[in-house]
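Section 5.1 Outputs to date
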Amino acid sequence: MNGITAIVSRNLLNFVRDRTRLVFSLLMSLFFLFIFSFVMKGASAGIAQPMNYLITGVIIMTVFQQALNNSTEILNDLASGYMKEIIVSPIARWQISIGQVLSSSIIAVSQGLIVFAAGLFMGLRLDFLACVEMVGIMAVTGLTFGSLGLFLATLARNSSAFQILTSVVVMPLTFLSGAYIPTTVMPKFLSVIVWLNPLTYVTSVFRYVTMGMERLPVADLVKNGVAFDILGFVVTPVMGFFLIIAIGLAFFVLCVAKFNSADFSTVKVFRRRH
């Protein structure tokens, strides 16, 4: 466990020290927060609690994207040769992979909380219980997509390939999840992709909690795009949440197994000339 703690502490310290990365990642989220809470207010006509609807979409997207993108840290370690030094140390590989996932999740949730705090000044209103549930969902999201990010990073093993892989993953998952564009207004031929998108269910349960939809009947949940009628079978937000947990566990096992068996000896190391 000391190895996991050391990896987490080191990655968190590196993130805090990297001011450019920290500032620009937050600026991008705050930019989207401004756009979708002010400029696009007219597009939310007919949506109950439009501010909650738009702001929560930006928050969950921040957690998702940061959890996925923070896996580039391991690629930097590979390129610098630092990761090879860790691998030959007494720390077990599974501890390294778990430390990477946990640090990515903590960073992602922290940034989501910062955007949440900004949202409070822009009209977001939640009770205490909803805030606690929201943090829990953000944590599950961070762990799920942090695991996916490490799996893709281990698979790619270089920054260029990883950027291509994440672009292929991030773009469709983001815009077909209902975070920015309600799934209820999307063309019918995209329904299958929406249903297969794990981020769809993250977004739905996040809005289900933050918008206080617990007492709404199933028909209204489907109408509001937080439950999904899949060929007569309705996937409720709670069912979707357990589905995300299952997906997260699957990717967690996969990323740990892949990292344990990966051969990093062929990775080119770049060293600075003095």
